[in-house]
């Protein structure tokens, strides 16, 4: 069943019809098999991190789940391999249901906050068929002019922005209330003045990469309906895999 035609893509490949349906969801429980994990990555200053592949196309960063990996571990590894960025925290925003006729598989999408781990030196995965050759940090207002898969891209960007703003607000509030000695904190500990005096010019505190922020569920958006999605069928032939947005 197709709930929203604007979130679906149908195409033929070697005699097989593929139906790819994007589902807006904040919960991945019950999805199996999940073959790939991708992140709509946001930097501390709110820009979107995209990769440019060998074909010159802008794409989200991520890839195939390896044996024994959790979804979070997969995204953390792929972000380092493809862009040399660290994932600080993350939250589910949606998934793709890929139906190849006799087999259904899933690719999940996270919003994530990232920071550089070092200089970009190219895709570290030598096995990559279509490697990342360049990375871009793009203003959110300009992202869809580089990476536009229609309503799907717009919806993912909206969810990631909502999450980013929730993380920003929560971090500000925690920073302001966690210590009675706030006024004694030095400017350097906040990369500038305390948040209560900076307003819109406030920047992320260095301690953002704390254990709490690294918990993938730390900043899930409670106001969103938690989607479940169609019941998966076990694979009856090789799992369909495709790198898509």
Structural key phrases:
nine-stranded mixed β-sheet, Nucleoside Triphosphate Pyrophosphohydrolase, alpha+beta, 245 residues, 9 strands, 29% strand, hydrolase activity, 3 helices
Structural write-up:
- There is one protein chain.
- The chain is of the alpha+beta class and 245 residues long.
- It has a single domain, classed as Alpha-Beta Complex (Nucleoside Triphosphate Pyrophosphohydrolase).
- The longest helix is centred in the last third of the chain and has 27 residues.
- The radius of gyration is 19 Å and the shape is globular.
- About 27% of the residues have low confidence.
- It comes from Saprolegnia diclina (strain VS20).
- This is Nudix hydrolase domain-containing protein.
- Pfam families: NUDIX.
Mean pLDDT, rounded to whole units? 78
CATH topology: Nucleoside Triphosphate Pyrophosphohydrolase
How many helices does DSSP assign?
3
Major beta sheet, specifics?
Answer: 9 strands, mixed
What count of structural domains?
1
Shape: globular
Which sequence of SSEs, written as H and E, runs from N to C?
EEEEEEHEEEHH
What is the correct CATH architecture? Alpha-Beta Complex
Rg, rounded, reads 19 Å
Summarize this, please?
With 245 residues, the protein is of the alpha+beta class. The chain is 18% helix and 29% strand.
List the helices and strands and how they pair.
Layout: E1 8-13, E2 16-24, E3 34-42, E4 48-53, E5 58-59, E6 61-64, H1 71-83, E7 85-99, E8 104-116, E9 132-138, H2 151-177, H3 211-214
């Amino acid at each position: 069943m197709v709930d929203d035609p604007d979130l679906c893509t149908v195409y033929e490949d070697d005699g097989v019809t593929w139906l790819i349906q994007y589902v807006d969801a904040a919960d991945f429980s019950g999805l199996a098999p999940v073959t790939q994990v991708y992140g709509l990555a946001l930097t501390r200053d709110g820009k979107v991190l995209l990769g440019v592949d060998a074909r010159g196309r802008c794409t989200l960063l991520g890839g195939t789940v390896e044996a024994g990996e959790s979804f979070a571990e997969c995204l953390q590894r792929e972000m380092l391999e493809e862009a040399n960025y660290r994932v600080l925290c993350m939250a589910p925003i949606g998934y793709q249901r890929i139906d190849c006729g006799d087999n259904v598989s899933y690719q999940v999408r996270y919003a994530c906050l990232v920071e550089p781990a070092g200089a970009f030196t190219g895709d570290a995965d030598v096995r990559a068929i279509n490697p990342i050759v360049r990375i871009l940090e793009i203003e959110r207002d300009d992202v869809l002019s580089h990476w536009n898969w229609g309503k799907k891209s717009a919806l993912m960007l909206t969810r990631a922005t909502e999450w980013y703003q929730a993380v920003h607000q929560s971090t500000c509030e925690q920073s302001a209330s966690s210590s009675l000695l706030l006024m004694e904190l030095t400017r350097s500990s906040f990369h500038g003045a305390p948040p209560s005096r900076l307003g819109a010019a406030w920047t992320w505190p260095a301690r953002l990469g704390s254990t709490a922020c690294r918990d993938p569920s730390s900043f899930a958006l409670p106001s969103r309906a938690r989607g479940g999605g169609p019941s998966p069928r076990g694979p009856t032939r090789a799992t369909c895999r495709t790198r898509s947005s």
